[in-house]
Design brief:
The structure holds two protein chains of two kinds. By secondary structure, chain A is of the alpha+beta class. Chain A folds into four domains: 185 residues, Orthogonal Bundle (DNA polymerase, domain 1), CATH 1.10.150.120; 167 residues, Aldehyde Oxidoreductase, domain 3, CATH 3.90.1170; 312 residues, Aldehyde oxidase/xanthine dehydrogenase, molybdopterin binding domain (Aldehyde Oxidoreductase, domain 4, 2-Layer Sandwich); 141 residues, Aldehyde Oxidoreductase, domain 4 (2-Layer Sandwich). Chain A starts with a strand and ends with a helix. Chain B is α+β, with helices and mostly antiparallel strands. Chain B folds into two domains: 74 residues, Beta-grasp domain (Ubiquitin-like (UB roll), Roll); 70 residues, [2Fe-2S]-binding domain (DNA polymerase, domain 1), CATH 1.10.150.120. Chain B has a five-stranded mixed beta sheet, sandwiched between helices. In chain B, helix 2 packs across helix 5. The longest helix of chain B has 16 residues. Classes of the chains: A alpha+beta, B alpha+beta. At the A-B interface, loops of A face loops of B. The complex binds FE2/S2 (inorganic) cluster (4 copies). The site of one FE2/S2 (inorganic) cluster (FES) has 12 residues of chain A, from loops. One FE2/S2 (inorganic) cluster (FES) binds next to loops of chain B.
Chain lengths: 917, 159
C-alpha cells in the first residue's frame, strides 16, 4: 500500500512519518512511533483507554485516522510529565491511590488534563462527565475523583498517601504507580520484538457440529502469511484445572461458538485476520443444548461423549452432561421443616457476566533454536501456565518460560491460558516472534465468563425469626468445558447458608456442560450469585415472620464458635459488627420515606492461601531484594502491603527493599494471584522471610560484637547490643563484609503452604483459614415510569482483620462495590443459541464515573488468629453483597418480588407491571 | 539525511527488499533494518571478521561493504546456514569439537569456513589456518576451531 507523509506536533516536537493512509492514530503512536502509553481496550470508541489530546481536546485515538492529525498538536501520556517532574494530575493520582492495574490511567489522566485546561475549577459533576467515557474496572472511580479534587483545590484530599513512610497501617503509595502514571509500564500488548509478526484465530461459527475438514490452501496463498496451524498438525493433550477436558483446537467436533479450530500468523494483524477468514472448514451441525436444566435431563444432546474419560482430581458422580455434583448437609432438613412455623421457597437466577478487564488478552511468544518457548503474557498464574501448556502441548514443564507483564486487570479472567498455546505454535512454525491480541469482540464473546446461576431455596423459620432448616439446590452452567466449574460449585456450597446458623442444611451443587461459551473462575466465583440468592431469599423469610432485615440477620448471624456447613469452628467472626456498622451508615433505624428503599446483605469469603515461597536477599550496601513469584493482577498488594510487612519484619525502611520482577525461570514458585491471597499468604510469607533474614543479620552482628544474639537489635540501620549503643555495627557494613570478605550473601527464605483448618465433614475445599466477613447497606429510589434505579447512599463494612494499607483496602472495596453494582444493575452477556449478542462495551455496560454512587467504606479490624498481624483477604468479597443489598432495597422501595439480575430499567418496569397485575 | 534507496536482494535464498541510506554498511542493514543479528560487529573496520558474510559466493566483511552495493546480489548469513532445522556439518563439528567459547566470533568463523569449503572441500590444516586468518578469536587459541573445520570437511567428503 502506498504510504503518505504525516507531519504533526507530537508532545511539543515536530514529527514526520510515512504511514499507510488507513492507519489509526492509535497505531501510528503505538506501532510506528513506539509510544505505547496509549492503550487499546476496545478499538471501538467505548473505553477511553486510548485517549490522547488533539489540539488540547481529549479524543479516542482508536477512532481517528492518523492523517487527520496532519498539522495538529497531539499530546500523549509520554509528553505529560517525566519521572521527577510530574504533572500535578499525575502526582495526585499516585498519592490518592487512583491507580490500580493502571491500564486506564494514561487515558484517565489525559481526559482530566483536557478538562482542567479548559476549566480549571470544574465541580464534581463536571469531572464525572469528563471521565465518564473512560472506563475503569478496578477503582470504582472514588480515588480518581479524589485525585481530581486535589488538583482543583490545590491540596491533598483525606486519604492521600501520607508521606510514604511505609509502616504497617500507613498509606504507602504503590511502588509501580510512577511507571503506570507516565505510560511507561509495559503491558502484554506493549511488548515489541524485532521481526515480530501477528497471529489470529479461526473460530467455530457453530455451537455444536462435527468438524469434517479444514482447508487452509487459500489462506496460505495470501502474501505475508507465515504460518498456519490446525489441530491435526499438533500433538495435543487435555488440560484444565480440576478437570482436564479441553484441547487447544477442536478436532472431531466443535462444542461452542468461538472454539478455535486453527491459527494463522502473518506480517500484519490485518493480513492475519484476512487469512483466518480464508480458512475454510466443513461442518455437519449437531443438535445443541444451551439450558443447563435441559442439559441434565434424559435424552439431551451430549456435549462430551463420555465425561468419565477425562482426568478429574475430585470425587464426583459424572455422567451425561453432568460435569460435577457436590452434596453436603447437616442435621435433618425435613424434620427441620416440620418444626418450622413457616417454610418459604424461592428461585433466583443470575446471568452470564464478563470479568470486564479493560486490557484484552495478549501474548507474545518466541521459540529459540532448542525449541524452548519464551512467552510474554498477561497472566495471574505464570507458574501454573507452564503446567497447563505442558499438558496441552505434551512437552516438559521446562520448555516454557513465562514472563508476566503488567496486568491491565485480572479479576479471574487471566487465570487460564487463552492465546499462549497458539502464539507458541505459530512462533515455532514461522521461526519468528508472534504476538496475538484478542479483539474486544472476541474478548467478550469467547473468553471465560462468570457462571450463570439458578439457585432454589427452601427455608424453614420459627415465629421468633430463628432459622431452622434450609434446602439449597444450585445449578451452574459451565458451558462447553469446565475448567473451573467444580471449584465454583464447591465454593458455592460453602456460601449456601450465608454466614448464618442453620441447624439443618441440605446443599446440592450441580455443574452442567452445555454448548455455551465456557465459564471460569471470576473474582469471588459464585459469591455474587450466592449473595443474591441467599440474601434476597432470607429478606423474604424475615418479612414472612414480620421481622426487620437487620434484626433478623443479627439474630441468626454466626458468632465465634459457630460452625460452617463443613463443621469448621469459626473464630474472629465479625458479621454482626459489619451488619450494624453498614446499617448505621445509611440510618437504617430511621422511619422509611415512601418510594425509598433500604437493603442489607452480608457474606463471608476465603482469605487465599496455596503454596508460595519468598526470598529476601541482602545487597552489599545494606539494602535488600524481595523475590516472589507471585504477580500482582493490579490490586497493588504486592507493591504496598507485601513490602510494608517485609520492612516491618526486618526492621528497616520500606525504601530499602526492592521488589524484583522476573519470570518463571528466575523467580521462586508461586500458585498465582487470586483467591484474595496477596496479603494473607504472600505478605505473610514475606514477613516470615524477613524475620528469618533478620535473625541471620542479628547473629552476624552478635558474632562481630562478641555478644549473645538474644541481646541484639536492629534499628536505624544499626545492629547493636540492646541497651548499649556503643556496641553497634552498621547494617551496611555487615552486608558488605558478608558479600566481599567472608561468608557470602545472606538470604531469608519462607516457604508457605497453610494447612486447612479442621472440618468434621469431607469437602473438596475443606476448611478456610482466616475467613473474612462483610456487610453492605444501600438506600435507593426507583422511577415508577422508566424503571431507573438511583442509588442515594451506599455503605460497605469489611472486616479485613488488620489494615496493612488503608488506601489499598479502600481501593479493593470501592472497585469491588462498583463491580458488584454493575452485576446488580446492568451487566449481562446475552447468549442466544450459544452466540453472544452483545460483545462490546457499548452493549455490555460497565459502571462509569457518572454511575458510581457516593460510597462509605468502613474497615473493621477483628484480627484472624493466623499470621503476625491477623490480616484477612479483601480482594474478592466486596463484589458479592451489592447484588443482594440492591435487590432487597428495590423490593422495599417498589414492593416488588426480585428473582433475577440484572435490575435494568426494563427489568424494573416489568417487575412493577407484575406487581400491579 | 539523504533519501533512502530501495534495494532488492536475495538473503539466505529468500527475495527481500529494504530501504537504506546510501552511507549504511551491509552490517548495519543486516542488524538494524532486517534484524538479522547473528552477524556481529567486532571492530567495524575490517580487522576482526566477526561480520563475515558471503555475497555472490565471495567472503566479505559486511562492515566494509555498502548495503546499496548489494542490489540484485545473493547474500548468505549465519541465519541461513542451518536448513529446515538441520545443522550444517560445520555447525555440528563446532558443537562436537567445542569450537567456541564466548561465541561472538563464531558466526564469522562459520561463514569463513563455509566459503573455504565451498571453494576447497578438502583443505589441509595450513590452508585452513591461512583462510581463517582474517577472523580473530580471543578465547579459544584457534586449535579447536581448526579441528572443527577439518572434521566438517571430512563429514562433507563422506556424504
Ligand atoms: S481503545 Fe479507543 S476507546 Fe477503547
Ligand atoms: S486502574 Fe482503571 S482499569 Fe485498572
Ligand atoms: S566488524 Fe567487520 S571486520 Fe570487524
Ligand atoms: S570464542 Fe570468544 S572470541 Fe572466539
Amino acid at each position: 500500500m502506498k504510504k503518505q507523509t504525516l507531519s504533526f506536533t507530537l508532545n511539543d516536537q515536530a514529527e514526520s512519518i510515512e504511514i499507510a493512509p488507513r492507519t489509526r492514530l492509535l497505531d501510528a503512536l503505538r506501532v510506528d512511533l513506539g509510544l505505547t502509553g496509549a492503550k487499546e481496550g476496545c478499538g471501538t470508541g467505548d473505553c477511553g483507554s486510548c485517549t490522547v489530546l488533539l489540539d488540547g481536546k481529549a479524543v479516542n485515538s482508536c477512532m481517528i485516522l492518523a492523517l487527520q492529525a496532519e498539522g495538529r498538536d497531539v499530546t500523549t501520556i509520554e509528553g505529560l510529565g517525566k519521572p521527577g517532574s510530574l504533572h500535578p494530575i499525575q502526582q495526585a493520582m499516585i498519592r490518592s491511590g487512583g491507580i490500580q492495574c493502571g491500564f486506564c490511567t494514561p487515558g484517565m489522566v489525559l481526559s482530566l488534563k483536557g478538562l482542567l485546561d479548559q476549566n480549571p475549577r470544574p465541580d464534581e459533576a463536571a469531572v464525572r462527565v469528563a471521565i465518564s467515557s473512560n472506563l475503569c474496572r478496578c477503582t470504582g472511580y472514588s480515588k480518581i475523583l479524589d485525585a481530581a479534587k486535589t488538583v482543583i483545590d490545590g491540596r491533598m484530599p483525606p486519604g492521600a498517601a501520607d508521606g510514604n513512610d511505609g509502616a504497617v497501617g500507613s498509606r504507602m503509595a504503590r511502588t509501580d504507580a510512577l511507571e503506570k502514571v507516565t505510560g511507561r509500564a509495559v503491558y502484554a500488548e506493549d511488548v515489541q520484538l524485532p521481526r515480530m509478526i501477528y497471529g489470529a484465530l479461526v473460530r467455530s461459527p457453530h455451537a455444536h457440529a462435527k468438524l469434517l475438514s479444514i482447508d487452509t490452501s487459500a489462506a496460505r496463498q495470501l502474501p505475508g502469511v507465515k504460518a498456519i496451524v490446525t489441530g491435526r498438525d499438533v500433538e495435543m493433550g487435555y488440560y484444565g484445572y480440576e478437570v482436564r477436558d479441553q484441547r487447544v483446537f477442536a478436532l472431531e467436533k466443535v462444542r461452542f461458538v468461538g472454539e478455535p479450530i486453527a491459527a494463522v500468523a502473518a506480517t500484519t494483524p490485518d493480513i492475519a485476520r484476512e487469512a483466518a477468514s480464508k480458512v475454510k472448514a466443513e461442518y455437519e451441525e449437531l443438535p445443541a443444548v444451551f439450558d443447563p436444566e435441559e442439559a441434565l435431563s434424559m435424552g439431551a444432546p451430549l456435549v462430551h461423549d463420555d465425561v468419565n474419560v477425562y482426568e478429574f482430581d475430585w470425587e464426583s458422580e459424572r455422567k451425561g452432561n453432568l460435569c460435577y455434583k457436590i452434596e453436603i448437609g447437616e442435621g435433618d432438613v425435613d424434620k427441620g421443616f416440620e418444626e418450622a412455623d413457616q417454610v418459604i421457597e424461592g428461585s433466583y437466577e443470575t446471568p452470564e457476566a464478563h470479568p470486564g478487564a479493560i486490557e484484552p488478552h495478549s501474548s507474545t511468544a518466541m521459540v529459540d533454536s532448542s525449541g524452548r518457548a519464551t512467552i510474554w503474557t498477561t497472566t495471574q498464574k505464570p507458574f501454573a501456565f507452564r503446567s497447563y501448556l505442558a499438558a496441552a502441548l505434551k512437552r516438559p514443564l521446562s520448555s516454557f518460560k513465562i514472563i508476566p507483564t503488567h496486568i491491565g486487570g485480572g479479576f479471574g479472567g487471566k487465570l487460564f491460558p487463552c492465546l499462549e498455546p497458539y502464539a507458541v505454535l505459530l512462533a515455532e512454525r514461522s521461526g519468528l516472534p508472534v504476538q496475538m491480541t484478542l479483539t474486544r469482540e472476541e474478548e467478550m464473546g469467547a473468553t471465560l465468563l462468570r457462571h450463570p446461576s439458578k439457585v432454589e431455596l427452601k427455608t424453614g423459620v420459627k415465629r421468633d425469626g430463628a432459622l431452622v432448616a434450609q434446602r439449597v439446590r444450585m445449578l451452574f452452567n459451565t458451558g462447553a468445558f469446565g475448567p473451573y466449574g467444580p471449584n465454583t460449585a464447591a465454593l458455592a456450597s460453602l456460601m449456601a447458608s450465608g454466614p448464618y446458623r442453620i441447624p439443618n442444611l441440605e446443599i446440592t451443587g450441580l455443574i452442567a456442560y452445555t454448548n455455551n461459551v465456557p465459564n471460569g473462575s471470576i473474582r469471588c466465583p459464585s459469591g455474587p450469585q450466592m449473595a443474591f440468592a441467599v440474601e434476597t431469599h432470607l429478606e423474604k423469610v424475615a418479612r414472612a415472620v414480620g421481622m426487620d432485615g437487620l434484626a433478623f440477620r443479627l439474630k441468626n448471624a454466626w458468632e465465634d464458635g459457630d460452625t460452617t456447613c463443613t463443621g469448621q469452628a469459626l473464630d474472629a467472626v465479625s458479621v454482626k459488627e459489619c451488619l450494624q456498622k453498614a446499617a448505621d451508615a445509611v440510618e437504617w433505624g430511621e422511619p422509611r420515606t415512601p418510594g425509598v428503599g433500604k437493603g442489607l446483605a452480608c457474606n463471608w469469603w476465603v482469605s487465599g492461601t496455596w503454596g508460595t515461597q519468598t526470598l529476601i536477599e541482602t545487597n552489599e550496601d545494606g539494602t535488600f531484594r524481595l523475590i516472589s513469584g507471585c504477580v500482582d493482577m493490579g490490586t497493588g498488594g504486592m507493591t504496598t502491603s507485601v513490602l510494608q510487612m517485609a520492612a516491618d519484619g526486618l526492621g528497616v525502611p520500606v525504601e530499602s527493599i526492592q521488589l524484583v520482577r522476573g519470570d518463571t525461570d528466575t523467580l521462586p514458585w508461586d500458585h498465582g494471584h487470586g483467591g484474595s491471597r496477596m496479603v494473607f499468604t504472600i505478605a505473610r510469607s514475606a514477613y516470615e522471610a524477613a524475620k528469618n533474614l533478620k535473625q541471620q543479620l542479628l547473629k552476624e552482628g552478635a558474632d562481630y560484637l562478641e555478644a549473645s544474639v538474644d541481646d541484639m537489635a536492629l534499628e536505624n540501620g544499626q545492629v547493636f547490643v540492646r541497651g548499649d549503643a556503643s556496641h553497634s555495627m552498621p547494617l551496611a557494613k555487615i552486608c558488605y563484609n558478608r558479600h566481599k570478605k567472608h561468608g557470602g550473601p545472606m538470604i531469608g527464605v519462607s516457604s508457605v503452604l497453610d494447612d486447612a483448618p479442621a472440618t468434621t465433614k469431607a469437602h473438596p475445599i475443606g476448611g478456610l483459614p482466616a475467613p473474612s466477613f462483610c456487610a453492605h447497606a444501600v438506600e435507593l429510589t426507583a422511577d415508577e415510569e422508566t424503571g431507573e434505579i438511583a442509588v442515594t447512599r451506599y455503605a460497605a463494612a469489611h472486616d479485613v482483620g488488620k489494615v496493612i494499607n488503608p488506601t489499598g483496602c479502600e481501593g479493593q472495596v470501592e472497585g469491588g462495590v462498583a463491580m458488584g453494582l454493575g452485576l446488580a444493575l446492568m451487566e449481562e452477556l446475552r447468549e442466544v443459541n450459544g452466540k453472544v449478542l452483545n460483545p462490546s462495551f457499548a452493549d455490555y455496560l460497565l459502571l462509569t464515573a457518572e454511575d458510581m454512587p457516593p460510597l462509605k467504606t468502613i474497615l473493621v479490624e477483628r484480627p484472624a488468629s493466623e499470621g503476625p498481624f491477623g490480616a484477612k483477604g479483601v480482594g474478592e468479597p466486596p463484589i458479592a453483597p451489592p447484588t443482594g443489598a440492591l435487590a432487597n432495597a428495590l423490593a422495599e422501595a417498589m414492593d416488588v418480588n426480585v428473582e433475577r439480575l440484572p435490575l435494568t430499567p426494563e427489568e424494573v418496569v416489568s417487575l412493577i407491571g407484575a406487581r400491579r397485575s | 539525511m539523504g533519501n533512502k534507496s530501495h534495494i532488492t536482494a536475495t538473503i539466505n535464498g529468500e527475495a527481500r527488499d529494504f530501504l537504506c541510506e546510501p552511507r549504511q554498511s551491509l552490517l548495519e542493514v543486516l542488524r538494524d533494518v532486517l534484524y538479522l543479528t547473528g552477524t556481529k560487529e567486532g571492530c567495524n573496520d575490517g580487522n576482526c571478521g566477526a561480520c563475515s558474510v558471503i555475497v555472490d559466493g565471495v567472503l566479505l566483511d559486511a562492515c566494509c561493504m555498502l548495503a546499496v552495493e548489494t542490489e540484485g546480489s545473493s547474500i548468505e548469513t549465519i541465519e541461513g546456514l542451518a536448513k529446515e532445522g538441520e545443522l550444517h556439518p560445520l555447525q555440528s563439528a563446532f558443537l562436537e569439537e567445542t569450537g567456541m567459547q564466548c561465541g561472538i566470533c563464531t558466526p564469522g568463523f562459520l561463514m569463513s569456513a563455509k566459503a573455504l569449503l565451498d571453494k576447497n572441500p578438502s583443505p589441509n590444516e595450513q590452508q585452513v589456518r591461512h583462510w581463517l586468518a582474517g577472523n580473530l578469536c580471543r578465547c579459544t587459541g584457534y586449535d579447536k576451531l581448526v579441528r572443527s573445520v577439518m572434521k566438517a570437511a571430512d563429514t562433507l567428503a563422506e556424504a
